[in-house]
Amino acid sequence: MSEQPLTYESIMKMIRGIARMQKETDRQMKEQAAELAREKKERDAEYARKQEEYAREKKERDAEYAREKKERDAELARIEKETNRKIGKITGTIGSMVEHMLGGRILEKFQVLGYKVDHYSRNHYYRNSKLGISGEIDLILQDGDIAIFIEVKTTLETADVRKHLEKMAKYRVYVDAAKILWPPTTRFIGAVAGAVVTDEAKDFAHENGIYVIVQSGEAVEIVPTPEGFKAKEW
After folding, report:
1. Nearest to 141 by CA among 107, 94, 95
2. Model pTM?
3. What residues contact residue 142 under an 8 Å CB cut-off, 6+ apart?
4. Which residue would you say has higher pLDDT here, 191 or 6?
């Protein structure tokens, strides 16, 4: 089949077809570009909305955190104040108990037990950084050969007695290292005192050679020791 010769009409027809195709392509490209621009605008708007929502939520979270922190700080301040008040009260109670023991003739009561104690010292602090030993003894009754170390608690429990036993042992090490605080022949014995003394603490103290002192009305008393009791010496 032979090719049809190109004529002016056929050429123009081809050109018009190509123009229509180009126009349709341009239209489609404009529509696609418009659609892409619309989608981008929507995405940007959604991103901006989410950013704004995130910023709002963050602001609310920060405000809530600041409010909770303020409440926590206020509660901690209240607890600290209450704790300090209780500590002050306990400290005052212990000081009052020591005064009560002295006013209740605790020296004479130990003298009845055969100890020639005739003077005392209060709030004895000690420290040896090299040995890692430090502490405080509430009341010490003294004579030439014996020193009675008394630990005072508002409520005396077994754990308090155990700590006092450990303290006595450490203090002996401290004294032996210092060498000048006490005469080398001085013997230390222990006693514990409390406004309230549990039976377990009393029994544990006696089992370990520790005297127990309790309040009795307006005075203080040394709890009678069980048969076979022997004061532990350090």
Report:
1. 107
2. 0.60
3. 117, 118, 119, 120, 121, 148
4. 191
